[in-house]
Amino acid sequence: MILETIIIVLYTTSLVLILLYALAQLNLLFNYIRARKKNNTAKKLDLTNGVEAPYVTIQLPVYNEKYVMERLLRNIAKMVYPKDLLEIQVLDDSTDDTIFSTAAIIAEIQKTGVNIIHICRKNRTGYKAGALKNGLKTAKGEFIAIFDADFMPDKDWLLKTIPYFKNQNTGVVQTRWGHLNRDYSILTKVQAFALDAHFSLEQVGRNSHGHFINFNGTAGIWRKSCILDAGNWDGGTLTEDLDLSYRAQLKNWKFIYLEDVVTPAELPVVISAARSQQFRWNKGGAENFQKMKWKVITSKATSLKTKIHGLLHLLNSTMFLNIFIVAVLSIPMLYIKNEYEHLKIYFIVMSFFVVSTLIFFVCYWFMFKKIYGSTLWNFIQYIGMFFVFFSVAMGFSLHNTIAVLEGHFGKKSEFIRTPKFNINTIKDSWKGNIYLTEKFSPLLIFEGLLMLYFGFGLYSAFVVGNQGGDFGLFPFHLMLFFGFGYVFFKSLFK
Known about the structure:
The chain is 54% helix and 10% strand.
């Protein structure tokens, strides 16, 4: 019974932590609903007044961006803002021949009167954080706008965002990500579904009540003095944006999130690219929890509720660990349930934890209907999308759990960039992308075995106990079987 007790304790603990996270999401939903009913009354800078219009530097941190570099530069060159108050820094750490083609495009743009400069380092020390920090040394702007290589801001983007820096305590203005290729595949739809929840429910829900949010690494603007006051960029974690965001807010800098200003970008279309992005984000989140937890807990200027939301925010990626534990132990728990009659009351109580899934279902529906509408057909589509999203997310749980554990235990790893493809429609092909590697990961074997394991869980539903089976966990195991199967076959056959 010792092994059974250990399984029950681990399973129950993970379920409780997932429920706490779900309740925090529900609180953010209430915040989001209330925030949508309020009008934005923030005072704004008058950019038509030459005295109030500030000098702005746009930083473009890039590394080997063969497929999107020209699109990025020509789009940014169209940015509407007084030319004498704008400079563009191309922070180019490239190690391939794109460094020459980029230089040629920059020279062409310079002839049109745009103040754009090409900054190249001899090494990638600090990766993206190092490039941003290096560019900051010579940046003339009072404000620093940052865009990754696959982002396509509208030409009036600065006119929509800079005015919100009227308050001198405002350190960051962040905009919502859009998706250029949302409908390209199941993979892009799932990524868009998750990001939409973050950029609506979570960012608005936190920001509207003064809780900590994060600059998302791109499509936002920093006050230069805020960056310096918070200690500047640091490449010590894989999510330098989350790190600097928390250091700034712990020093009482205010962040503003603009849900209605959308900055389109490209979603990874190949699962290997999505894997590398997910690994970096999830490991970086765990690293920042270890780095920031005591600073958040001991902050005298931070309210208790903001501390709780802040810690749960930093633990976002750790939910994958809890989900993975629940998933793996759910099959032994199915057998324990049907072997030990005296635990019947325990399992009746445990059935309450299905409320976590219901909370996520409700929260994500509010996000979904805002984008697609709330008709009956939209709701039916949402049910299908929710099933697919949860399945694929759980299919990534082993991969993301490893990332989380590495982050918590302090294992260092290289900053792996997400390959860009310039893929917008199903007719576009990513075949032949020179940045994709054919390296086989042993992790794929375990994901295939987990697919079979949860197939066994589906079979077990028919044979456990003496009452004709137990189908309480059948939907859960079906999603896990589908999710790990999707990740396995998609990774195997690309």
